[in-house]
Design brief:
five-stranded antiparallel beta sheet
């Protein structure tokens, strides 16, 4: 039996903007209407982090914060 799960987001997706790397983990940076989402691509452990656009209104401001936290932006 296969389980399929999905999420319907009312905030709307506007697209992937890049990749942030910390250590050996890569996170896809996705822009949503009201937030930014970093999501790991690991098959073993999935991690999601959400940053509000109230705090980081532009992609450049988010990138600067991630660099301060030790991420490399690709």
């Amino acid at each position: 039996m296969t389980t399929i799960s999905y999420t319907i987001s009312k905030s709307g997706t506007t697209g992937d903007r890049g990749v942030a790397v910390k250590g050996e983990t890569e996170f896809i940076i996705r822009e949503l209407q009201n937030s930014w989402k970093l999501k790991s691509g690991s098959a073993v452990v999935k991690v999601e982090m959400v940053y509000s656009k109230k705090d980081f209104t532009t992609f450049d401001s988010l990138k600067e914060e991630l660099k301060k936290q030790g991420y490399e932006i690709k």
